[in-house]
Amino acid sequence: MESETGLRDKRLPLRWIAMTTLGWLVGVVLVILLSMALESVGGVSQLTVGVGMGAGVGLFQGRVIAPWVTSKWHWFLASTIGMGLPYLLWDVSAVLGFNPFYAMWVCTVTGGVLVGILQRRLFRPFRPRSGLWVLGCAVGWGIPQLLLALDDAGLLSGRWAFVLTAVVFFGGLLLGAITSLVLPRERPRS
């Protein structure tokens, strides 16, 4: 079915979810590797969480979204910077002695908003619903973290351990499913 903006792409949501999930898994590995590298030189930083997850997800999402955005590499950078910045701000404030209460879910939801704002600007002009992208990113990044925060607060019993393990490894499935709801539905013309 053709429209002014291009052809309908019915496979996009499934490809998006699959690549976001794969990117999340790569992000988990990147967080571990970055943390190990930093610890080997005597450092500790929460920045590794934001940068690792943002880079992994952004890299794989960029491959799928490339036809709809100005640059897949800008998409990758927007994801990495947007997710990394709240963690960096927390690290800097801790070094400066502010010792703020650290809550990973606050950093992640804030990062989701920043990722959404930065990525929204990359959509080509035909994308009329790009304003919803910010909300989709905040919710998509936030839901997996909210489940982990509930566990950290002791609100989930031991029988939820399998769910929490699944969130760590398959949070990208939730992120991909939620953000797929606000993806472009028309394939751009070449």
Summarize the structure.
By secondary structure, the chain is mainly alpha-helical.
Question: What key phrases describe this protein's structure?
Answer:
single chain; 190 residues; mainly alpha; two-stranded antiparallel ribbon; 69% helix; disordered N terminus
What can you tell me about this protein's structure?
This protein has 190 residues and is mostly helical. 69% of the residues lie in helices and 3% in strands. The protein has 6 helices and 2 strands; from the N terminus they run βααααααβ. Strands 1-2 form a two-stranded antiparallel sheet. Mean pLDDT is 84; it is low at 1-7.
Beta-strand content:
under 5%
In the predicted model, the low-confidence regions spanning at least 5 consecutive residues are 1-7
Strand order of the largest sheet: 1-2
- First-last Cα distance: 16 Å
What is the overall shape?
globular
**Tally of separate helices:** 6
Which structural class matches the secondary elements? mainly alpha
| Major sheet | 2 strands, antiparallel
Assembly status: single chain
The radius of gyration over CA amounts to 17 Å
Written as H for each helix and E for each strand, in order along the chain, the element string is: EHHHHHHE
Topology:
Elements: E1 6-8, H1 12-40, H2 47-65, H3 72-95, H4 104-120, H5 131-152, H6 161-180, E2 186-188
